[in-house]
Fold these 3 entries.
Entry 1:
Amino acid sequence: MTNEGAVGVGLAGFGTVGSGVWNTLARNGELIAERAGTGLKFEIRQIVVRDPDKPREAPAPAELFTTDWKSMVENPLVDIVLELIGGTEEAFELVAASLGAGKPVVTGNKALLAERGAEIFALSRLHQTPVYFEAAVAGGIPVIKAARESFVGNQIDLISGIINGTSNYILMRMTEAGLDYSTALQEAKELGYAEADETLDVNGWDAAHKAMLLGTIVHGFLIDPEQVYVRGIEYVRPLDIRFAKDLGYVVKLLCIVRRHEDGSIEIRTQPSFIPKTNILASVNDVFNAVAIRGDGFGDALFYGRGAGQDPTASSVVSDLVDAGLALNQGAEGKNQGFLPYREEGTLKPIDETETAYYVRFPVTDRPGVVADIASLLAKAGIGISGTHSAVDPDEPDAAFVDMVFLLHTCPFGILKSALKGIENLDCVTERPVVFRIETL
């Protein structure tokens, strides 16, 4: 039996997050109705799963389960669709069909929005039906709403964030316990902090998708993934972690969305050196943090759990309430979801972006090495703020040492060109390792 006064919800996906949504509505349904101020109630009326007979954590009635998402979209008792199945192909079909049926969509699928956002937002505009996606960025941290609503009257100049908990945990363990990457990754898997296939978490793309969404929200245009610079943490070695600590820095997988004076937008994700005194340096475990800087308010920080059942379900339910309130307003509420408000924008080419740098050169241990490298850097117009050398304690008998150069701010393209020449030196035994030094 259905509650005729409730908003009907179709739930696609009943894994960790989907179960969390069910539990949250069951636990706090009355509280939500009171806080919404309209007596707004929600009732999950159909649940799409791949295996209806699989044991479930949440006690949903068996009659709600189906394997056919099309029947859920067509169900007249379903008013709002929650897309929590993940992936991009089937998820896109589900979202497109739901919007075509005039049913608002709530999703936490950052990969879907980053890769097919242009099509989804076009369908949203065409059918005058909103898409909500707070859960797609930073789990339970309401950073999307802050960017859209709280700072709607402000020019956003910089967003910097740690928005992948898996990578953050791995780097923390490499820093605090001296673990190598493989050992720290295995520990993260054993604790449930890393997926069986950790690729998107450690190669930087999970965080990059989130950064792209934040960039779209605050700057108004869709961002092409092919124009976004992304590097992961797989190449980070304990030696670099130790150098960072000795120099007063912490290594973090950092996302940057920066507006330049010419209006171009710099967006990138990569492991970076952050000063220990910066607040982001103290973000550990699987926690996320997003710092936003803009005119009028200065700096604001958003911190919390970036993943997991309850934090992500919290964001999904928040969007569900917004969608329900908009439905209750009728036609006036149809456009309350986000839509890009600029047809295009300019992304700053990565070669034109500027920071200071840490560059480690594995070299043969002979006189004149520093002079050879410094000569080519000077020829490129790159200043040197310091040099350091060390033998990797993991390879004490190696016939080479590691020379670290701390470089003044310069365009990345100039540095890349200089490094190509340096790599050809006989004394350089491996490809140089580069980290940006962020001042934020």
Note: The chain has 13 helices and 16 strands.
Entry 2:
Amino acid sequence: MSLEKVNKQDCQTVSKQNLRELYKEPSQMAKDKVLKKLDKHCQQFISLSPFVCLATTAADGSLDISPRGDPPGSIIILSPTELLIPDRTGNNRLDTLSNLTAKAEIGLLFLVPGVIETLRVSGLASIIKDDARLEECVINGKVPPTGILVEVQRAFLQCGKALKRSALWDGTYQIDRSALPSFGTMLADQTGEEARAAELDCSIDDAYQNKLY
């Protein structure tokens, strides 16, 4: 793979008008599959998914995507047009929640282990504090501080080409963990705290083992 820097002046800028010169028109089924609510298949997919990525936008227009993971069934399907995602404590940066206080638009990508297809959902979200509902999301005796209430506007299944190409579930590209520096080492390098790498790794391991919730 070439490591030469791309010179934008030497490249043709692709506009919306000439995109269709490079890509075929989508099939009629690809157009028709977009739903305005969660049908039985979307609902089952969500109920089996332990992992979802949340895309949000900050007030200044900058974008963020953040992962969420819990046992399958942790996301509450309130209706075909409403989801409640428990928001548990993490690194406390609050990027997703802060963005949603400024812009309500949200995009979700659901994955199910062993399934190469994915589910894309988008809509409007708000942060809620509903003790009765959040009590339903308790794990290890811990109730999430807030929940993300999603008003579904669009949902559709995505074909499995991306996960097939990446061989995500079959282990083809799974690495030996020693091939990549530890999380603590990378954080220490990135924050100028190189001498604390071992200490950070111990703290991270403790958090994974004892402070997951």
Note: Residues 28 and 34 are 11 Å apart (CA to CA).
Entry 3:
Amino acid sequence: MKNSELLTNIISTLEDNHINLYHDISKEQLNNYITNLDDIDSWDNKRFDLEMLKLFHLFKDAHTSYFIPYKSLDQKLFYFDNKCYISIDDVYHEVKSICGMSIPALSNTLTSLANYETNEWATVVVNRLIRNGYTYEMLGCYDNGIDIVYDTGKVVATITDNLQVKSQCPYSVHNDGKIAIIEYKSCSEYKDYPISQFTEDVKKTIEDNNCTRYILDVRNNTGGNSELLNPIQQYIMDKNMSGVVLINPSVFSSGRFAVARFKQHCHATIMGYSGTGGAAKSYGYNKNLQVEDKRFSCSIRLWDFSNIFGTTGSIQPDIKIPITIDDFNHKRDVVLDKAINYLQREIKNESTNCNQESCKN
């Protein structure tokens, strides 16, 4: 199939399945964009993928994504706070350029390839692209390696075989005194630890330790099945507990929905260094599609959640907690530490007030 035919079929498939493909761009504008693409049928596979990322960027729907291969690099790159870092001997150093491009220039290029609705989510997608060896192949700057210049040196990164990463359970629970700390890093069920058992373990931790506060840590939760958290949310509502929800830009889709629900119904204070990545207008179901060997997804939203938290964009923290690259280097979880201290003060003040009331009586 010619590239031009493949592109036509991809657009047609999106139109047949997406609930509102032309929310941010008109069909006429899209057709004009495609008409201005040069010599489509001469593109190789990498050029086709690059142009599809640019095209999907126009839809401004973070759930409508064009999938590219992932190729590991033998150097660990990390995009944070509008800067790029490389891990050398387990210490992050600031990167000055990659493939001769300054980091601001590379960031702008990668942002134009990202599908996003909020600036927070754009940084997450840029981080994914900057760590993917295939990105540099698409950009035409990978030739047996990519030159990375950092603050104290230079390395040449090469593509390596993808390693099989052992899956880890995305949820756990423990306590710090009377604070139940619930880690919930994905809205999906781990086959060796059913969500029903996890729910019971949350209840047991709270009951056995007389917990009066909770921390729900949804950082890096990019979504899944929003219903899985319902029993835990209902239990916390029934107990009338208050607590803290920890967020970062990688909170997306059903992960963002969890933040909104706990804020509304579970007396939650939101803490983090930045807002969440997802936007409410994307909620509903997602559908994975394929034309030939090209894979992509699109929104098939069934409900309108745009007013669930008074905003359709990022949910911002009630208490913003700055973090630095130095915190990553020293493996300090500043956000969690601040949340624990915040709730410990609440518990102490509550106990003091209770004792004062007892004295009066």
Note: The longest helix spans residues 334-360.
